[in-house]
Amino acid sequence: MIRICFILVFSFCILTAGGQQMSHDLSYYAEAARNYSPLLHDYRNQLQIEQAELRRLKALYTRSRLELNGDYLFVPVLTKDGGQTSFRWNAQDATDYYGYDLGESSGHLHAGATWTQPLLGHSSYKVAQEQSRINMDMARNHIRLEENQLERAVTEQYRLDSLNTAASLRSFNLQYKPRLDLFVDGGMQTGSFSQWYRHFGWSAGLTFTWTLFDGRQKRWKERQAELQQQSIRIYRDHAEYQRSMRLCQCLSELEKYDRREKALTELLAGYERVLSDYAREVEAGQVSVLDYLTVLRNKIQTERDALLMRTNRQLVIAAYNYWNH
Asked: Are residues 270 and 231 both part of a single domain?
């Protein structure tokens, strides 16, 4: 009796310890799923993206901006000074000419730097700040929901998202390269109306602009792109991991089906030999017909099992080809 009680108590302790260990394992894997979920990483990165965008907008609306700029303007005219008709690109001292009124527009060269400080941007920044706060609250809510449901479809969209993010950053960075523009305009320009018909002309020039400092907007934009690319990489790696796991699972199932098919083939061959022997023995009266029918039913059932096994094997092959595209 004592021995039986000892065995029962010992078994109960083992079951209790095993249950605690299993509970610990489940908790561990649940926490691991939350840590490695690509969607949760995406939502957390969205929070940081919103914070970076808010800092960029603060720089846009409240911080100063320094630019190098310059332009060269030439105003060509057709002059008749001195009784000779000639074409001059910049006739500062012409008196008898056809072209833009030189008193209103004359060629010049300008080069310098421009410092700009927004004065009325705080109200716009407050609106952007409120919108950003709402977006961050939405991202936090998504995180809470995702912690209870770790699912997200995986598609080729990851690659397109990565290309789109990189293209968007390249497009944004174009404004920080030196810009040299050519402009041409034509029409009438005059300060008096007495001889307005003589002041139809045209002008052309070059403008140069190069942004040197913008309140670190570029830095925050690059930070946003970096976080977006990080989310895309996590999704891509997670999708590739799931795909490889499914491929391994398919290969493992195919291996099991191959072993089972070999066993069924050998079993059917054995049934064939037994039925052949039973057929001769039935004719000789050594075995009953009931024994022969029993073996035949077993053979038919084995053939059905083999057919079902081959069908399932083809389904696994189709799944393998799907994930191995």
From this structure: no
